[in-house]
Design a protein that fits this description.
Elements: E1 15-28, E2 33-40, E3 43-47, E4 50-54, E5 59-62, E6 68-72, E7 77-84, H1 86-89, E8 99-101, H2 112-131, H3 136-154, E9 157-159, H4 162-185, H5 192-199, H6 203-214, H7 218-235, H8 241-247, H9 253-264, H10 268-274, E10 283-287, E11 291-296, H11 298-325
Antiparallel strand pairs: 1-6, 1-7, 1-11, 2-5, 2-7, 3-4, 3-6, 8-9, 10-11
Helix pairs in contact: 2-3, 2-11, 4-6, 5-6, 7-8
Length: 326
């Protein structure tokens, strides 16, 4: 399973930058280094076996080939996302794809002033990427190198060996096969035994692997996919809820209703009414089994970026006032 973000504005080779309001994104992996900076809302993040709660103003790093997932509360979490392909920086730093930082959140390691400089550089990168002045390709590449150089200078890191990288790839490949197996069978009865047999592993190991790779038991993950499928069908306008739960793999309506009460605190009927709000023209909704995200046009992204700059200025002014009072 590999989903590609849908971004309306033009991309620079080896570099993608966009704003995203996410509700959830199930476990996924990509070959780029990904850096997100939270603008609004909190985000529950799982990176392999590490779980953390990221708050507005924080950055989170995801290495190439690293399995990770997102989940937000309420109306979702809006963040600025930067994805850097290995080819963009491998000439000056050939080991880029094997680079691993010990801490995924730079703001929890760097001194406040140093972190503020890092955020300012990131926002300057976004401004050039979205506004597209003459020579922005060179300027943006320079900003990326400056950001990565700052992280390497100030944060503990290591470079994986070829064997370690190959081991990670094997685990990721198996995890993606497991995700694909659920995608193809969630409407029917899904049996982990069949997957274990196809992989040539024991049922006990398959169960342990599923919990480590997916952050939950195999059955809980199947239920999550079924729930996401039901939400997608409701958002698409499928009218009869009895058809929704049957087509999403739920065995009965009570089980289906309990899933909504557990996750949203409301009934499926109330959730369907909530989905009838209008969608803004400057956004694009991507709703699938594995994600519910809202992407923004270039014009709307520039508005969001201006708002982010104002928030940062206000935070800096507040800190200065606090320092003066002391």
């Amino acid at each position: 399973m590999r989903e590609v973000e849908i971004v309306e504005h033009t991309q620079i080779d080896g570099l993608r930058l966009f704003f995203d309001t996410v509700q959830y994104r199930t476990p996924h992996v990509h070959r780029e280094l990904e850096l997100i900076w939270l603008a609004e809302g909190e985000l529950e993040v799982r990176i392999e076996q590490t779980q953390l709660l990221a708050r507005p103003g924080e950055m989170v790093l995801f290495h190439p080939g690293q399995l990770h997932e997102f989940r937000a509360a309420g109306k979702g979490c809006t963040f600025l996302c930067v994805q850097v392909s290995p080819e963009l920086v491998e000439r000056p730093f050939p080991a880029f794809a094997r680079l691993r930082f010990d801490q995924p959140c730079p703001g929890r390691v760097l001194p406040p002033d140093r972190y503020r400089q890092l955020v300012d550089t990131l926002l300057a990168l976004a401004g050039n990427y979205l506004a597209r002045p003459v020579g922005c390709e060179l300027t943006c590449t320079g900003y990326i190198c400056l950001i990565l150089g700052t992280l390497m200078a100030d944060m503990p890191h290591q470079v994986l060996s070829g064997g370690e990288l190959a081991g990670q790839q094997r685990r990721n490949d198996r995890a993606l096969r497991l995700i694909r197996y659920v995608d193809e069978n969630y409407i029917h009865k899904v049996n982990l035994t069949d997957f274990a047999r196809a992989e040539g592993i024991t049922l006990g190991y398959a169960s342990h692997f599923a919990r480590e790779a997916l952050g939950q038991s195999f059955q809980d993950y199947v239920d999550t996919v079924r729930f996401n499928a039901a939400c997608k069908r409701i958002a698409a306008g499928q009218s009869r809820l009895v058809d929704v739960y049957a087509a999403s793999g739920f065995s009965d309506y009570r089980y289906f209703s309990r899933a909504f009460q557990k996750r949203f605190g409301i009934t499926p009927e109330a959730y369907r009414r909530r989905q009838r709000s209008p969608v803004l023209e400057e956004t694009h909704i991507h709703h699938s089994l594995h994600s519910l995200e809202r992407f923004y046009s270039r014009e709307k992204s520039l508005e969001l970026l201006a708002r982010c700059g104002g928030v940062m200025d206000s935070a800096g002014a507040s800190k200065n006032r606090d320092s003066t009072a002391e």
